[in-house]
Structures are given as structure tokens and as C-alpha cells.
Amino acid sequence: MTNWRVIFLIARTHLITKMKSTVTATLGVTFGIAAYITLVSFMTGLNKMLDDLILNQTPHIHLYNEIEPSDKQPVSIYDGFKDALNVVESIKPKQNQRKIRNAIPILNYLKAHEDVRGATPQLRSQIFYISGTIELGGNLTGIEVMEEVRLSNFKDYIIEGSPQDLHNTNNGILLGAGLAEKMSLGLGDRVQISTIQGAVFPLKIVGIYQSGIADIDNIQSYTNLNTVQRISGYAPNYVTDINVKLFELEKAVPMARELSRQFNVKATDVKAANAQFETGSNIRNLITYAVSITLLIVAGFGIYNILNMLIYEKMKDIAILKATGFSGRDVQFIFMSQAIIIGVVGALAGLLLGFILSRVIDQVPFETEALPTIETFPVNYKVGYYIIGISFALVSTFIAGYLPSAKAKKIDPVQIIRGT
Amino acid sequence: MHVIEARHIDKYFRKPVEFHVLKDISFRIDKGEFATIMGKSGCGKSTLLYILSTMDTDYEGQLFLNEELVTGQPHQELSRVRNKHIGFVFQFHYLLSEFSVLENVMLPAKKLGEKSAAEIEHDAMEKLSMLNIGQLAKKRASRISGGEKQRVAIARALINNPSILMGDEPTGNLDSYNAENVFQIFKQLKEEVGLSLLVVTHDKDFADRTDRIILMEDGRITT
């Protein structure tokens, strides 16, 4: 039978009369939690931004024809040499078209698939940008621009002009920012494009494209799919790549395998394409958690110390409480509830302070050439981090309170009262 | 009706060397009796008192309170028994210094939880007034004089209307005026409320005026 009202009354009186220690211990928890929230929000915000930078430019599934040697050489298919040891030297890649066979039926199939948010055809071609007598090598990719805008944040990377302009202009081009700078070209100018076959076409610049990755911006430009097909002399069903965006990222891996088998094309899923990025962000998360947990443990030790001191000071009080009928468990609860009050108040204040600091960081200008869409530092306000923060604070204060209070429980009142 | 009865109690101190402190102690306190335990320092009288108070459980023999066996009960139950049936007054008037006088007196009753907060406050004020310290109720326990503190401690011991009031040299740290005052309070409690009292003391004058003196020598009761 525990009388909680009396226990809280005593715990509250102890906390109020030792205001200085109480505030110190509470601030320890507050700063620990605030630092955790700020750090984790900021770090994961940065992580997400870096991942998005790469992942948004990568489709969930990418279909294309790889130039590669055949898995089975003809000699091993022929039954006549079945039992022989066949050695083929100097294997060359198979003669193959770059275009995806039956691209239009595949696209129709994908667009009707229930897991698919959208599928866009692309035609990648090598071209030269001609500036006076100088020829700059580069890529021109034909896209269905409005579909790209719908399915990815392609629009964010168009720093001048708009996707509608490209859609409406037959001979328009979205020129890479690096190229535009090199050739001193701007919106409304014309740029000469030369195909590998040598045909030269003038295209009107309707927009400037900047991905933030200099190597891409120095070679890559975009235009309408049918423009590339026309200047390269291909039929309207000539497509080299199909990009698939799914509703759920998790389904990319099995679906890529299935598509590869079904249509006899190379299918790369987003995880295989960006394995190193996942490793990178995992390690950054690990560092974030290591630092945060250290902060919280330090806060826990603060509580442990202060409660230990408090119990040492209150030896006589504990003896009196026991002599007047409080049990060891009551005394333990008195000190436990002090620890938990410190923990709850400190943690709530910490969450608030952490949120405020995150807001402040969110307002700090962060403008960089590489990231055209980012204006301030990215911050991730995920509720999960706040729940983890408060749970950890409560668990650590519980442990920090449990150990000293278990000591208080065992204090023998006779020894204290008789002064032995 | 016996308030407290000890049967063949033996107690050993094990540290630093084994020492037989209490040897075959048997006695009874009747209801309404005012008894004192006297004896030289180290004869074991305080040790006996702490066993009788149920705080010390490391002994052999049997202890009865209101004719019920308390020996061997779990700590939780002993705390309840102490809370309800035993009032204790120490030589040093251990009050909880952060609390007001009134709160100090009220705490054991709040722990017992048998009455509402308003009733407890009323009872506590009544006890304080009975001991002529009603005007101190709102003061901090650390801000009153020694004699006043001892009276507050007595009020605290009485708050749950215990079966017996025990004192470990309750007048040992007081001047003769305050000591006399405490004696008069005890006597008044015995006569008016019929309270049983058991007090360990060195004070011969104090002991002579009580109903019964239990003399102890070398761990035994001699009278």
C-alpha cells in the first residue's frame, strides 16, 4: 500500500528546497535532449538533402540495353560440343542496338501497372555543342518534359526558363549551366548542335539546367524526345532508356528483376545504383547517434550525482521517515519520483529548446552554387526523433534515480539515529 | 491487556567482535502504564528499545504488540505497525527541517491515509495546541527552539493515536525547565488519554516519578 500523495509531497519539498541542484540536474537533461534533437534534425536534414540530390536524378528502375558480351557463347549452346571443353578467347561484346525493342508496348504495360507512378521514355545521344570553331562534346537527352516534371523534381533544377517553354517550343533546349557559361549563352540565344553523323541543327535556348554537380552541368542538356529523334534520324519509337517511378521504393528491387526477365533488357534498381550513398548516410546517422547518446549519458550521470549527494545529505530525514512508519519502498519511491520529475521536466524543456534551435538553424541562409533549390540549412522535423529523445531521457533518468534510491531504501534507521 | 510483551529476547552484535548485548529479556508493559528503563551506558537499554520499536529485526526471541506476534513480519508490515501503533521520541529532536511544524506533525497521518487531509490538519492542530505550541504551526521546523522541537516531535508521535509512546532519552538534550515540561506532558498523556509510555532515561528524578523502573545491567533486567 503506497500513499503517492505523501510521497509526491515530500519529493516536491526536497526539489523546491534544493532548487539550485534541481535546476542544475534538470538543465543537464535539457541540454542533452536539446543537443540530441538539434543534432539529429540537422544531420538527417543534411543527409536527406544529399540523398535527394542524387536519388531524385535516379529513377527507381532504369531500363536500357547494356553493351556487353552474351552470357552464353554459341558454341556452348550447340549440342554437338556438349561434352567437350570449349575455350573461347577474346570475347567481344555482342552487336546490339542501343534502342529498347518494343519500347512503346513496354511503356504502355508499365503505365498500366498498379505499382507504377509513371514511366518516361528517354533518348540519350552523344552530340557536339558548336561555339564558333570550338566543338564541345556532350550529351543531349530527349525527354517527355511534362512527365519528368510530374515524376521527379526536375523542375527544381531549371534555374532559368520553365519546362512549359520547352514543351511548347519544338526546337527548344534546356542547356547545362556549365555549358551556358562556357559558351556565353543565355536564355533566348541559339546554340548549334552537331550530331555524330555530322548534321548541324540550331536549337533555341528556352531554359538553363543546373543539377549542382559540375561534371553533369558541363555536358548535359535536355530537349524534347521527338526533337532528338528527328535530328538523329530515328523513328518515333526509338527510345534508349525507360525510367520508372514507383509508388513504393521498396518494390524496386523485385520489380527490376521481373522486368529484366520479362522484356529481356537491363534493369537497374535505385538501390544497386546508389549503394554507396546508402552506406554514407548510414555512417553519418551512426555518428549522429553516437554523439547524442554520449550527451544523454552525461546528463544521466549528472542526475545520478546530484541524487547521490541529496541522499547523503538527507540520511537523518530518511531515518526519521522510516522510524515514523515509512517503509524502505516508500523512501525509494520518494527519491525515484524526484529523478523522474527532473527527467520529465528536463526532457520536455529539452524537446522545446531543441525545436527552437532547429527552427533557428532552419532560418540560417545556406546558398550554394551546387544546390540551386536550397536557400537555408535543411532540417528534418520528424516526430520520431522527439519520441526517441523523450524515451531515452526517461529511461536514463530512471536508471540514474534507481541506483541511489535503492541505497536509500537500505539505510538502517537505527544506525543513523544512534549515530554509530 | 499488555501493550507490549518481550519473550526471551537475545541480541548479538557481530561487529567488530561478537558480543552478547541482550540476554534473555522478558517483560511486559500494561496498558496505561508509564515505565522507564534505566541502566549504565552500554548496558543495552537503547538496543532493547529499538528492538521493541520494530526498527531492529536482528534478534532472537519473540515480540508481541497488542498481544499479536510481530517478530518475523515483513518490513512492509512492520512499517505499517510502527506507523499506526508506535510513537517515537528521540534524544535529538529529529524533525524534517524543510517542512513546517504542522507538516512534520501531519506526515505520519498522511502516510497512514485513514483520514482526509482536513481531518488530519485538524487533529495536528489539536495536538499542537494541547502541547501549547499551536502558534508555531506555520513556522519552518528549523526555526524553532530545542524545547519547542521536542514538543513538536511528541505531537508527531501522537498524531496516529498510537498504542504506546517510546522515548530514547527524550529529555537528555534539554535544560531542566524543558525537561520538566516534557515530563509533565507525558504524565498528562498517561492520566488523561490512558497512553502507555516506555522511556529510556539516565535521569533518576524523572524515573522516580513514573509507575515502574526497569533496571538493566550487562544485558539483563535486574528488577
How far apart lie the N and C ends of chain B?
21 Å
How are helices and strands ordered from N to C of chain B?
Answer: EEEHEEHEHHHEHEHEE
Largest sheet report of chain B: 6 strands, mixed
Determine the N-to-C terminus distance of chain A.
31 Å
Which residues of chain A form runs of ≥5 with pLDDT under 50?
A: none
Average pLDDT over all residues of chain B: 82
Query: What general outline of chain A do the C-alpha atoms trace?
Result: elongated
Q: Summarize the helix and strand pattern of chain A as letters.
A: HHEHHEEHEHEHEEHEHEHEHHHHHH
**Which band does the percent of strand residues of chain B land in?**
25-35%
Q: What is the CATH C-level name of chain B?
A: Alpha Beta
CATH fold name of chain B:
Rossmann fold
Oligomer: heterodimer
Number of domains of chain A: 2
Largest sheet of chain A: 10 strands, mixed
Low-confidence stretches of chain B: none
* Overall pLDDT level of chain A: 84
Under the CATH scheme, which architecture of chain B would be assigned? 3-Layer(aba) Sandwich
Number of strands of chain B: 10
Please give a quick description of this structure.
The complex is a heterodimer of chains A (420) and B (223). Chain A is 55% helix and 17% strand. Chain A has 420 residues and is of the alpha+beta class.
Detailed description of the structure:
Chain A is α+β, with helices and mostly antiparallel strands and 420 residues long. Chain A has two domains: 4-55 and 277-418, no CATH class; 61-66 and 95-269, no CATH class. Helix content of chain A is 55%, strand content 17%. In chain A, strands 1, 2, 3, 4, 5, 6, 7, 8, 9 and 10 form a ten-stranded mixed beta sheet that branches. In chain A, strand 6 and strand 7 form a beta hairpin. In chain A, helix 12 (275-313) packs across helix 14 and helix 12 runs parallel beside helix 15 (383-410). The longest helix of chain A has 39 residues, at 275-313. Chain A starts with a helix and ends with a helix. The mean pLDDT of chain A is 84. With 223 residues, chain B is α/β, with parallel strands linked by helices. Chain B has one domain (33-58, 72-221): Rossmann fold (3-Layer(aba) Sandwich), CATH 3.40.50. In chain B, 36% of the residues lie in helices and 27% in strands. Chain B contains seven helices and ten strands. Chain B has helices at residues 45-52, 75-85, 101-112, 117-130, 146-158, 176-193, 204-208; strands at 2-13, 19-30, 34-39, 60-65, 68-69, 86-89, 164-168, 196-200, 212-217, 220-221. At the A-B interface, helix 1, helix 13, helix 14 and helix 16 of A face helix 2 and helix 3 of B.
